[in-house]
Amino acid sequence: MSDFVDRVTVHVKGGDGGNGSAGIRREKFKPLAGPNGGNGGDGGSVVFVADRNATSLLDYRFMPHRTAGNGTMGLGDNKDGTKGRDLVLPVPCGTVVFEAKGPAGASKKPGEELADLRHEGDRYVVARGGAGGLGNIALANKTRRAPGFALLGEPGEERDVILELKSIADVALVGFPSAGKSSLIAAMSAAKPKIADYPFTTLVPNLGVVMAGDARYTIADVPGLIPGASEGKGLGLEFLRHIERTEIIAHVIDCATLEPGRDPVSDYHALEHELAQYADRLELPLGAIPIPERPRIVILNKVDVPEAKELAEFVRPEFERMGLKVFEVSTASHEGLKQLNFALAAMVADMRQEVARREQAEEEARVVIKPLEQRRRRPAAGDAPADFTIEREEGRDGEFWFTVTGRKPERWVLQTNFDNDEAVGYLADRLAKLGVEDELRRKGARPGDEVRIGRGDRAVSFDWDPTIAAGAEMLDGTQLGHRGQDLRLTEDDGRARRRTNAERRREYHEMMDARAAVREAMMAERRAGHWSDPSVDDDRHDERSLFGRGEA
């Protein structure tokens, strides 16, 4: 089984944000001295980084699920939670990140391209961590001085992506099956590809590092191409993408083939036809040279065979008339490999300078258009809200509901602790201020209708019950109060405010007088002997007394 993996589906999830704290500062003689709950920490993000030391996507085949660290919750004494640790995942240079498309449980297909990590150090945040929830000290204001709730942390972003490796090699060896490409890369580098005497021996691309004096370049052995490879025949379509990033295309032509109807010139034109068909469907990255414009060389292989040597000398002038550089080599006797090595090194150096020049020119020519800042205005009566949308939906059984979608409402719902009445009221105030209730009325919603905020698993459903406390029905726009209440701050709670010294003295004297009255009553009972003689009837009106003499 080969250990080369060039396409894999990865499930990534950012860390969840920590919950905020609803702590209250407590001091001597100040049971409720004010809020001091800190904010929750943000969740960590999942980041792909192009790393030269990474050579394959094999690790993601066996471990496709990757999750970043969660943020910790806030604490009292105004202590914020810690941020979750980012998960940095190294990928080989030349990795392209696609959005995974397809139903759940089925194989995914590449969708929109998200990032192209071509150079070492390129980074892409594929799944952002959730924001930490605000503590009650951040929610306090002049009307809500001591919030009894805090916001929950947001869940991290979760998605499926496809990683596709498009090898970044300087030279690509293309040719028919059994043309000697694997033997050539084994002779020129330290790579050890599989070599056999049958077609399609190479099932995965092989990469080799070649040294020519002080120069260093990489060479890729692409699986054998056949006519129709650009349409999916053979193995060519699966691995043609590995020549997209190469700078030089080297045609390896078998001069010793015995197949009828084949010769070096027809093989070259057949391969060029497949490359042209494939190049028409490519979207090249910034500064890349189109495949038809990349330099070609022709390598006439197996010249150690006498008949192949004669054929190579016969077709060489015809290739040179096309403006191509021709090299006659033999991987068995190493004839011509030294000249080929240094010639490729010189071509690679020139092409690297050309690619750098094109990338610099594209960057300078790129124009960034930034729109002018517009002052936000209050939408008119007939305008649709910009921060959310409301749709009336109906099921098959005749039931209907109103679905509210938008970044702000969906985010606020995730931050709300529905076990806290004050937190639910805070959510209602925010939705009313945003204009959700006004838009629901305009859509024909009535109290008691079902309203859903968001879609999918994170949707929240409730019966719409607008109240005047939220300020939605006030004609003059004045808000009377907030929905929900903090029981600690109600009037009947003794902790709602600090007592004055006069009140403390009065309560103290009342307590001492009550204790004195109880002591006097107990002493009177003692003197009467009620505690010493059990035969004494303590209560003549009690039928359950010792003698049972209930008197009217």
From TrEMBL:
Q: Which organism is it from?
A: Bifidobacterium pullorum subsp. saeculare
Q: Where does GTP bind?
A: 175-182, 200-204, 221-224, 301-304, 330-332
- Which PROSITE patterns does the entry mention? G_OBG (PS51710), GTP1_OBG (PS00905), OBG (PS51883), OCT (PS51881)
From the Swiss-Prot or TrEMBL record, give the protein name: GTPase Obg
Localization annotation: Cytoplasm
Q: Where is the Obg domain?
A: 2-168
Question: Briefly, what is this protein's role?
Answer: An essential GTPase which binds GTP, GDP and possibly (p)ppGpp with moderate affinity, with high nucleotide exchange rates and a fairly low GTP hydrolysis rate. Plays a role in control of the cell cycle, stress response, ribosome biogenesis and in those bacteria that undergo differentiation, in morphogenesis control.
- EC number(s) on file: 3.6.5.-
Q: Record-annotated residues binding Mg(2+)? A: 182, 202
On whether Ligase is a keyword of this UniProt record, the answer is no
List the GO molecular function terms: GTP binding; GTPase activity; magnesium ion binding
Q: List, alphabetically, the SUPFAM superfamilies matched.
A: Obg GTP-binding protein C-terminal domain (SSF102741), Obg GTP-binding protein N-terminal domain (SSF82051), P-loop containing nucleoside triphosphate hydrolases (SSF52540)
Q: Which residue ranges does the record assign to the OBG-type G domain? A: 169-349
**Subunit info?**
Monomer.
**InterPro entries documented for this protein:** G_OBG, GTP-bd, GTP-bd_Obg/CgtA, GTP-bd_prot_GTP1/OBG_C_sf, GTP1-OBG_CS, GTP1_OBG_dom, GTP1_OBG_dom_sf, OBG_GTPase
